[in-house]
Amino acid sequence: MNPAKIRDKSKKISWLLRHGATEAGLSMDTAGWAPIEQVLQHLRICRADLDVIVRDNNKARFELRDTQIRACQGHSLRTTPVTLEGLESTWYRYEGSARIWHGTGLAALEGIHAQGILPSARTHVHLAASTSSTVGKRFKVQVLLAVSVQRMHDAGLDLWSAPNGVVLARRVPVEAIEGALAQSKKAEAQARRAAGPFPWLEEGGKD
Hints:
By secondary structure, the chain is α+β, with helices and mostly antiparallel strands.
């Protein structure tokens, strides 16, 4: 299987396991596990190809267990059978104490300042354990929001770690957000003007 086909099939598996199970008629339990055979039939691939797709995914999005497969996180609540409790029962309690990070765009900051970070149609908010992490944040984000683990605990909110290292929370209240770190030239310009609803942290941004 060539790299382009791997990327295409990876996207299709991601949609199926995270968002499309109900529409596709895929059997799935509350923790997101689905039969491998059904996934192979739906995508018209063989098991060897599936193993390559899982192995080569740059964010380790998929997890295999005996005759089952699932997406580690990122499920839509309305279009899959997963539940918050079902997923959390298979994740690990997050044990870190340093800041964790949520990637977003400049346009979202005012809404986050008003409501905190919400998962929207997903089950959980995705966070990263470090600014250099390849998981837990969107590609080419403009801003990283620093989240205090201690403040999350003070608010009575649990933090979880998926098998691929993504940190997860049901929501992040405004009071747990310590500041913003610029990740684009546009964000750096705002930081220099001290513009925006959150204090800007002193660390070099990225293009």
